[in-house]
Write a structure and sequence with these properties.
Number of helices: 13
Strand content: under 5%
Helix content: over 70%
Radius of gyration: 32 Å
Distance between the termini: 123 Å
Length: about 350
């Protein structure tokens, strides 16, 4: 019996031993190799470096190059003789290329994702209203600029009051071809390039780094400083405020380009060519309050037209508070990202360049 029992037990033990799971040592291997870790760290460094870059830095560099060309009389060396419409057109092309086209190309190559935030679509009614609002606003800003220049001239800060249309006088009169060149170079192309760069890129990034009011102020100040004219700063600072707010409301580059275009058309052409709108004064030494009353009335009429248009445009927002709540929060939030020191330095450098341009 003992032998039989032992024989029966042995197979059972054998089966148990076969079914028993023996513990094994598991070697834990790091799933991320050191080379991948280095690549990830390098990618983080590159992203931080890219975040510090801003378009204004490249714009200032372009303006600096343009200033050097102006100091060395680059235009007169290419086109000999007095400063004419050819010299003006050449200098305008070079300035727009160095200050806006080239910096935007470099910046987009470094940050290609910025292109996806630029919206070109616009509601036809919004586009029409944006065109309309530019006309009275340009007249209002021109009148304010004229009044300020008269006061500064009276107290001895300015030698002469502002005179509108100096650039237009360089072009041959009563010639459609020259007029088209003038309007394209002074009104159309600057409106497209400036709004694409300043509102489409700079303002979008400022809204993530600064409070909304400060972002609008800085963007408007850059718009005024880039005129590089003492008497051109105020009107385009005001335009920068207006189009920045319209951009926040409607999120469309096309809409503010149209507003900027109508502003340029009024400021650089209509108030000069249309006699009833002309603001040029022949002799500042004999200007009396009575002489300015018709102009002041025109300014009040322009304000009466501007205010309801602005109210309508501010109420007909493209952003839907229900469907696009994230965008609303982003636009009206406080600082979401740390401030960009390079932008602040570039802004100071732009102020210095503006002063140098005015002096020379």
């Amino acid at each position: 019996m003992d032998d039989k029992q032992n024989n029966n037990i042995r197979p059972i033990n054998k089966l148990r031993s076969e079914n028993t799971i023996r513990p094994t040592k598991i070697r834990i291997v790091n799933p991320t190799p050191k080379t991948s870790q280095r690549l990830a760290q390098q990618a983080n460094i590159n992203s931080k470096w890219q975040n510090k870059l801003n378009l204004l830095f490249f714009i200032v560099l372009g303006c600096l190059i343009f200033l050097l060309l102006d100091i060395f009389n680059f235009w007169q060396r290419i086109i000999s003789g007095a400063f004419t419409w050819k010299s003006l057109t050449l200098s305008q092309i070079v300035f727009l290329f160095l200050a806006f086209v080239l910096p935007a190309i470099i910046y987009i190559l470094l940050k290609p994702q910025i292109v996806f935030s630029i919206k070109l679509t616009v509601n036809p009614l919004t586009a029409f209203l944006c065109i309309l609002i530019g006309f009275p606003f340009a007249y209002i800003m021109a009148l304010i600029n004229l009044t300020l220049s008269i006061l500064l001239e009276r107290i001895g800060i300015l030698d002469n009051i502002i005179f509108f249309g100096q650039q237009l006088q360089l072009f041959p009169a009563n010639n459609a071809i020259y007029l088209i060149v003038y309007l394209i170079m002074l009104c159309l192309i600057p409106a497209i390039l400036i709004e694409f760069s300043l509102r489409g890129i700079i303002l979008e990034e400022l809204l993530l780094q600064k409070k909304q009011n400060r972002a609008i102020f800085f963007c408007a100040a850059v718009t005024g400083l880039l005129t590089f004219q003492l008497q051109g700063f105020l009107p385009y600072f005001g335009l920068g405020l207006l189009v920045s707010m319209l951009y926040l409301y409607h999120q469309s580059i096309t809409a503010i380009i149209l507003c900027h275009l109508s502003f340029n058309l009024t400021y650089h052409y209509l108030i000069i060519k249309i006699s009833i709108l002309n603001l040029n004064l022949t002799n500042s030494s004999v200007i009396l309050i009575e002489d300015l009353i018709p102009t002041i009335i025109k300014g009040l009429i322009a304000t009466t037209i501007f205010v309801p248009l602005f109210v309508i445009l501010s109420q007909t927002k493209k952003i839907n508070p229900l469907l696009d709540s994230d965008k609303i929060i982003e636009r009206h939030s406080k600082k979401k990202e740390p401030g960009n020191k390079l932008f602040n330095l570039s802004f100071i450098a732009l102020i210095i360049l503006f002063i140098v341009f005015v002096i020379i």
